[in-house]
Amino acid sequence: MEWLQIIIPLILFVLIIIPVGKYLYNVSTCQKTFGDKFFNIFDNFIYKVCKINKDEEMNWKEYVFSIIAVNAAMIFIGYIILRVQGFLFLNPNKIDGMEQSLSFNTIISFMTNTNLQDYSGESGLSNLSQMIVIIFMMFTSAATGFAAALAFMRGIIGRKGMGNFFVDITRIITRVLLPFSIIIGLLLVSQGVPQTLSGTKTITTIEGKMQDIAMGPVAALESIKHIGTNGGGFFGANSAHPFENPTPLSNLIEILSMMMLPGALVYTFGLMLKNKKQGWTIFGAMAGIFIIALPICYYAEKAGNPILAHVGLSQAMGNMEGKEVRFGIGQSSLFTTVTTAFTTGSVNNMHDSLTPIGGAVALMNMMLNVVFGGKGVGFMNMMMYAILTVFLCGLMVGRTPEFLSKKIEGKEIKLIALAIIIHPFLILMFSALALVMPQGLVGISNPGFHGLTQIVYQFTSSAANNGSGFEGLVDNTLFWNTTAGIVMFLGRYLSIIILLSVAGSLAAKRSVPQTAGTFRTDNTMFTVTLIAIVLIIGALTFLPAIALGPVAEHLTLWH
Name one Pfam family in it (predicted). Predict the structure, then answer.
């Protein structure tokens, strides 16, 4: 039965991405779509008010500058609102302004599509902040990553212009994120997720005691949280909270919401390239790594925790510590694998309570950061590895490597090497910093191998713009708020800048005709080779950290 709960969502995912991918293609290429007359009213109003020339094309430098400028303005405004929320309206619970370092961490987190939370939403934010900072940032950060991916696609397929960032982000929000969020929000409300502007309700429980129940615009946040692969929760318990995720059906809705757009975007790439096989090849590589990870996580959790067994707790159902009974091992393992592979960060169980191997799966998904990933960035990272794979294969046969009819030369490989190095550098160097500083060590709640994993997980989640955490880590401190904020910022924008520069370099090159000796990149052999390259580089980079953390902890538990 549990396997059916895993297999059915995956089948639905594959069925959904084709029509959604076609819709995304029509939106991204400004072709006719359903509801154009309605959406054009809003789009044209935005263009007029913001004085946007929708026919203007940008090169990669202009596109990057637009991303940074717009995001910087929103970071500044959002930070101010968080600091002064105690004096503003829509604050029925009289919540004070957010502390300085926590405000910095929060605004960077939500603008970078990370949504790492060092606060508990129901007690740390007013309804106003939840809506005009958190929910607003969820839309704009998701649209920013989506727009960057579209610009990257246009560049590598040979278009001279990379589009217009302002047009892209407008159309993505009005025609994709808003409509899908409304539909998903209504579905979640039907399952019992609250949607209100009222404050905390005090009720009498069946035991005759008084209990405060936090309320707010939960469904609105939950819908864009998942469809935008954001991940932050209205409540501290995130999607394990019964108000965020009350039923197995709401759990299915949230899982598919996380998976839908990142998977569809790969199909959109095949349509833009006019080579669906190429799109399915990249999709196959992503899906292959995901299918490797999922059963490992499931069987690790199903095996149970021997320490709990030693103290007399039955492990017949598996390791249920930190999991909701209404979801069980099957839906919890699927949610864990999906949220870290698609870099959403939403959780329906406590990742700090996963078995060492189950936690290692979540960790490796974020370390690789190519298994579909969040809005756009996961796709861009996988394409980066695809170009590297072509280059390495070209070296083996002594030919100038070509990808999508463009020669891959030294400039592109140097940029790609830099992009590959940045991700582990941020994770490992900041982890090392935390391990040698008292301010970092004091956050560890579970010393030993697990404590190392807590630290590495925090910075991996930050660098991958995921946002989930081993919440045993005491992270709401000046040190953790600041360092995680820096890692989130650099992990987001450096990779976007570098990969858009690669796309710009390829766009400027002339296409070369394919010959009998051209290395094919749209077949099964390339998919297998690409998976191997990703796993080998991931292992060479992160295996010591995995061995000293989850693997060592697993061997200790099962000795």
Answer: KdpA
372: its two tokens:
């579909």
Q: Tens digits of per-residue pLDDT, 418-446?
A: 999 999 999 999 999 999 999 999 989 88
The closest alpha carbon to 529, from 539, 519, 517, 544, belongs to: 519
**Residue type at 274 in one-letter notation:** K
- Average pLDDT over the chain, rounded to whole? 91
What Å distances lie between residue 442 and 433, 485, 496, CA to CA? Answer: 13, 18, 33
- Give a yes or no: residue 261 inside a domain: yes
- Return phi, psi of residue 213, to 5°: -115, 115
190: left (phi over 0), alpha (psi -120 to 50) or beta: alpha
Let me know if residue 296 belongs to a domain. Answer: yes
For residue 138, give its domain range.
Answer: 9-557
Instruction: Calculate the CA 135 to chain-centre distance.
Output: 16
* CB neighbourhood size of 358 (10 A): 29
If one counts the domains in the chain, the total is 1
pTM of the model: 0.93
Residues 1-29 have a mean pLDDT of 93
Place of tokens 């932050």: 232
Total Cβ atoms within 10 A of residue 196: 12
CA distance 320 to 349: 9
Is 150 in a helix, a strand, or coil? Answer: helix
Rounded distance, CA 432 to CA 452, Å?
Answer: 10
Look at the chain and count its residues. Answer: 559
The residue type found at 3 is W
Cα(386)–Cα(266) distance, integer angstroms: 13
Residue whose entry in the numeric block shows the structure tokens 């030294």: 410
Name the residue with tokens 């833009």: 272
Q: Please tell me whether residue 375 adopts helix, strand or coil conformation.
A: coil
370 CB-near residues (< 8 Å, 6+ apart): 286, 289, 378, 381, 382, 385, 534
Distance CA 43, CA 174 (A): 7
Instruction: Count helices and strands (H / E) in the chain.
Output: 22, 4
Q: Is 4 part of a structural domain of the chain?
A: no
Tokens read off for 300? 């690790």
